[in-house]
Amino acid sequence: MQLSITDNIYIETPAISDAAGLYPLIEQDRENLAKWLPWAATTQSVIDEAGFIRDCLQRIEDQQLWLGVIWVDHHPAGMIDLHDFKDSHAAIGYWLGKDYRGQGVLAQSLAALEKFGFGRYRLHKISILAEPDNAASRAVAERANYRQDGTLREHIPHQDSFADAVVYSKLSDEA
């Protein structure tokens, strides 16, 4: 499945072969990504990324996840997903390779996935969680007019600890 955004940006359901293009983005920015996304520290090879995609494809088939690779000019730029489906709610997660940040790619991808989630899945609410110190991720949510609902204490797991999560949400009638 593909969500077209612009002539040169689209989101597409991943294929295991996409791991070869995504892994260099992780490797190139591992230190920054790992601050916010614990999986970045443990994804150490294309094989690891392929295994992640394989697991996600099974979760997609089981209707527990919708995951897409963000493509820019036919190159993988990052990923975005809908997860934690429950009671007409879901959460969005995302990451973008450092060379693609600051160009509106994530904002446009978020808008497209939001429209898709409210439309196809008939979601009532979409949430975004970000650590308090993750200014970039919080700015994405705020620029997209997500409302800050509060903070979940020690909610995001890290290797030996838990971090707080600032919760943002948007209701279907606010989209």
Task: Explain what the structure shows.
- The chain is an alpha+beta fold and 175 residues long.
- Helices cover 35% and strands 35% of the residues.
- The protein contains six helices and eight strands; from the N terminus they run E-E-H-H-H-H-E-E-E-H-E-H-E-E.
- It has helices at residues 19-28, 30-36, 39-42, 46-61, 105-120, 135-143, and strands at 2-4, 9-12, 65-72, 75-86, 89-96, 125-130, 147-157, 162-171.
- It has an eight-stranded mixed β-sheet with strand order 1-2-3-4-5-6-8-7, with helices on both faces.
- Helix 1 (19-28) packs across helix 4.
- The relative contact order is 0.14.
- The model has no long low-confidence stretch (mean pLDDT 96).
Features:
175 residues; alpha+beta; eight-stranded mixed sheet; 8 strands; 35% helix
Quick summary of this structure?
By secondary structure, the protein is of the alpha+beta class. Helix content is 35%, strand content 35%. The model has no long low-confidence stretch (mean pLDDT 96).
